[in-house]
């Protein structure tokens, strides 16, 4: 099996996400959930990307790491166990169900079941289903097709509503991080959740205002050519 990243590329990646030295190869860390959690936490707060990864550790347990789903995504790896509840940011709880989805057309007794990611904003709230996945491995071409649909289809909210999520990380004395909150930009609104209720902290009314917010809150700076790329599109933020 070919390596996806060379040792040098891995080191540059670890440097970029700020992975503490204690987890580097030369320190011979255990390939366990502690290392996986550190990778997830430092990745999600630096370069989040929405891909479901199923990891099997040496002890046989299976975990899911998805570092770019969005504001209601997992802040640390979750055990791939049906109805095991994991505490997320603030009062939010998350879990996996394993069941058939309602709009599946196969009604046979052997109706296929899928893993379903669910969340609720408190123990008294009902569970909400967000996404589902199987254990079939996807390759690069599969993701290209999926990305084309979400970026072009008029039925996808992502073609009309820019969404940015930044998970906020706090490092301890050893440099190991923990997610304590998140910043989000949805359309023209900048939202903040520090472990409680999400609140709007700024509403942008134009592209210059949104560009300023992206730089101030998310550290994103765009060239003049990049700024012009949104002009004339349905996602452009125009004053009322």
UniProtKB/TrEMBL annotation:
GO terms for molecular function: acetyltransferase activity. It comes from the Eukaryota. It holds the Pfam family Acetyltransf_2. Belongs to the arylamine N-acetyltransferase family. This is Uncharacterized protein. It comes from Lasiodiplodia theobromae.
């Amino acid at each position: 099996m070919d390596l996806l990243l060379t040792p040098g590329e891995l080191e540059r990646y670890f440097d970029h996400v700020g992975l503490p030295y204690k987890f580097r190869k030369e320190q011979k860390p255990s390939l366990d959930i502690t290392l996986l959690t550190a990778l997830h936490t430092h990745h999600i707060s630096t370069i989040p990307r929405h891909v479901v990864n199923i990891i099997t550790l040496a002890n046989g347990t299976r975990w899911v790491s998805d570092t770019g789903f969005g504001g209601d995504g997992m802040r640390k790896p979750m055990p791939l166990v049906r109805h095991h509840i994991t505490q997320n940011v603030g009062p939010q709880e998350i879990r996996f169900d394993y069941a058939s989805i309602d709009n599946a057309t196969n009604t046979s007794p052997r109706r296929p079941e899928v893993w379903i990611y669910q969340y609720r904003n408190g123990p008294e709230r009902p569970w909400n289903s967000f996404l589902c996945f199987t254990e079939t491995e996807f390759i690069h071409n599969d993701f290209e097709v999926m990305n084309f649909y979400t970026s072009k289809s008029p039925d996808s909210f992502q073609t009309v509503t820019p969404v940015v999520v930044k998970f906020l990380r706090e490092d301890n004395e050893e440099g190991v991080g923990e997610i304590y909150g998140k910043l989000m930009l949805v359309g023209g609104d900048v939202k903040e959740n520090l472990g409680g209720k999400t609140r709007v902290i700024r509403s942008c009314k134009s592209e210059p205002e949104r560009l300023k917010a992206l730089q101030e809150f998310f550290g994103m700076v765009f060239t003049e050519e990049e700024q012009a790329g949104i002009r004339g599109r349905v996602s452009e933020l125009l004053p009322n």
